[in-house]
From TrEMBL:
Upper classification of the organism: Bacteria, Pseudomonadati, Pseudomonadota, Betaproteobacteria, Burkholderiales
One GO process term, biological-process aspect: protein secretion by the type V secretion system
UniProt xrefs under Gene3D superfamilies: membrane protein fhac, membrane protein fhac: a member of the omp85/tpsb transporter family
Domain Haemolysin activator HlyB C-terminal residue range list: 216-529
Annotated Polypeptide-transport-associated ShlB-type domain residues: 78-153
Tagged with keyword Signal: yes
Signal peptide region: 1-31
Name of this chain's protein: ShlB/FhaC/HecB family hemolysin secretion/activation protein
Length: 571
């Protein structure tokens, strides 16, 4: 069949541009929609959501506290006529005095004074000063004045055991300037250690806080564990498009800290069982020790359309060059916020070579984006916290349609040429109901200032959208996708079962230009999935979904039920 199609293609070379239009109409009639473009294909090669979740952050700060003093058994009472706080620099004396001010004028025991000192200790702990404590020093209580001594936990000795691929200088920069005599602040240490632990070339960073030799001193022992020189993952799935190949294999190879700076060189590739190939080269580098990272990437995609569009000999390519800078505004075990600025320079070309002269379309696009990514844990009152992730991306871009005839047609229809603004947001929440049961919900939405190019649109269908419809179904400028799942993890088995419902709505064109065409569409579906993860680095996920309602598939042959399969190996 393929040879016959190729023979037809060669025979069609000498036809005119008018025949090219007729061929497009015939092919579109078979497929029900216009042929995919390089922009459509580019959207389809985004990395899939892995069936094996990333491990949660582990505790980075280990505190060895001195044993608390035993409550005094003395029943002797004396009247408190004054309070004195010494040793405090983090909080004002007035603020700390207010915590124990209820003692004034009372006849109290030594145990009650110890309980009051604990209130001062609790204030420090709640503010992140984990080794600070308030004590009652040996004293002669004169005129009823009681002294509380605050030992804020100042840095004594500092040692660093760096076993990672990141050189000692960069490790010291990321740990910050830990000065002997400075007050130990756990959240500041936690931030630095979590950022260092996720740096390429390191796998984990911890610190042990131990009582020092001097009164109120704390010794810090840092340990930075090594990461792999080469890491990555292999994916195989059927999440592709009918016309460029359902079945896909992708790989990501990371070379970690090649210069000893916590930098990373990344190569990502994807191929399908049809004629689609994509490669991406990226490099990132930490700047200083604050968590700021800068990077750049270059990607190239080439495709040929098959199936109903094979007779067009349609093919195309896209190239994207990007630079970015990211900074963690907040980094902790439970709350994280990352800001990223990205500039993309994009180029797209589509060709129909079954005609003479060849019908070609060229587009260039430059996009500046600001994104905020938040993720973390929520206290549910149980042993297992809820987890969340959310992101918002504001983009400002400029589309330049380089082909005169296409630009002229666009001016009379979509008017996508020129500047545009887009706002996209996404979020998900996993809420545990018990040890084995959990609820999961996700949402995605997009708004646009005008009609967008295909590369900037949102599609409802696909393994990450309304799963009862194929990848690329119902693209549009504005829309939303909602999903809800009930998940059950089989006890003592690496298997998770889920039932889900998906729904999404789309506005095809932000500004409608064809009054006779329907400009909105709503899709919904329901199904079930099973995820098998025998190892933390290996996962297999199968999903089956059927549509709800009467909306049929338009982007390819109609099917009421759709199967999705994905496997992953992380190394």
């Amino acid at each position: 069949m393929m040879k016959r199609a190729q023979a037809m293609t060669r025979a069609l070379k000498p036809v005119t541009a008018a025949v090219a239009t007729l061929l497009c109409v015939m092919a579109a009639a078979q497929a029900q929609v216009a042929p995919p473009t390089a922009g459509d294909v580019q959207r389809s090669v985004l990395p899939p959501v892995a069936p094996v979740p990333r491990a949660a952050d582990a505790e980075a700060v280990h505190v060895q506290k001195p044993a608390p003093a035993a409550p005094s058994a003395s029943t002797m009472r004396f009247q408190v006529r004054g309070l004195k706080i010494t040793g405090a620099t983090v909080f004002s004396n007035d603020m700390l005095t207010s915590l124990v001010g209820d003692l004034m004028g009372k006849h109290v025991t030594l145990a009650e004074l110890q309980a009051a000192a604990q209130r001062i200790t609790d204030q420090y702990e709640q503010a992140g000063y984990a080794v600070a404590r308030a004590v009652l020093p040996e004293q002669d209580i004169v005129d009823g004045v009681v002294e509380f001594l605050v030992l804020e936990g100042r840095v004594g000795k500092v040692s660093i055991d760096n076993q990672s691929l990141v050189d000692d200088g960069q490790v010291r920069r990321m740990l910050g300037d830990v000065q002997v005599g400075a007050v130990v602040h756990e959240p500041s240490l936690e931030r630095r250690l979590l950022l260092l632990g996720e740096t390429p070339g390191a796998s984990r960073a911890t610190v042990n806080l131990q009582p020092g030799a001097g009164t109120g001193e704390t010794d810090l022992g840092f340990v930075v564990e090594p990461g792999a020189r080469v890491s990555g993952q292999l994916d195989a799935d059927n999440h592709g498009n009918r016309y460029t190949g359902y079945n896909r294999v992708s790989s990501t190879i990371n070379v970690n800290s090649p210069l000893g700076l916590g930098d990373q060189l990344q190569v990502r590739s994807l191929i399908t069982d049809e004629k689609l190939g994509n490669i991406r080269l990226g490099y990132r580098l930490p700047v200083g020790g604050s968590g700021l990272v800068v990077g750049t990437s270059w990607s190239m995609l080439r495709y040929e359309l098959g199936r109903e569009y094979a007779l067009l000999d349609a093919r195309g390519s896209s190239r994207i060059t990007s630079v970015f800078a990211s900074y963690p505004l907040k980094r902790s075990l439970d709350t994280n916020l990352l800001a990223t600025v990205t500039y993309d320079d994009k180029s797209f070309e589509d060709r129909i070579e079954a005609v003479a002269p060849v019908a070609s379309t060229r587009k260039d696009s430059q996009v500046l984006s600001l994104s905020l990514n938040a993720y973390g844990n929520l206290n549910t009152g149980s042993l297992t916290p809820a987890t969340y992730a959310a992101a918002a991306v504001l983009s400002r871009g400029d589309l330049d349609i380089r082909t005169a005839s296409v630009r002229s047609n666009d001016a009379a229809t979509a008017r996508s040429d020129g500047g545009f603004t887009k706002l996209a947001g996404t979020g998900n929440l996993t809420w545990p109901l018990s040890t084995n049961w959990a609820l999961f919900g996700s949402a995605y939405g997009q708004l646009a200032s005008k009609n967008l190019d295909a590369s900037e649109k949102l599609s409802l269908g696909g393994a990450s959208g309304v799963r009862a419809y194929p990848q690329g179904e119902s693209p549009g400028d504005e829309g939303y996708i909602l999903s809800g799942e009930v998940r059950y993890t089989i006890p003592l088995r690496p298997v998770q079962l889920a039932a889900f419902v998906d729904a999404g709505g789309i506005q095809i064109n932000r500004n409608a230009y064809n009054a006779s065409a329907d400009n909105k569409r709503f899709l919904s579906g329901a199904g079930a999935s099973v995820t098998w993860a025998p190892l933390p680095t290996v996962g297999l996920k199968l999903m089956v979904a059927s549509r709800l309602g009467s909306e049929k598939v338009e982007s390819e042959q109609d099917a009421a039920t759709r199967w999705w399969l994905q496997g992953l190996w992380r190394f």
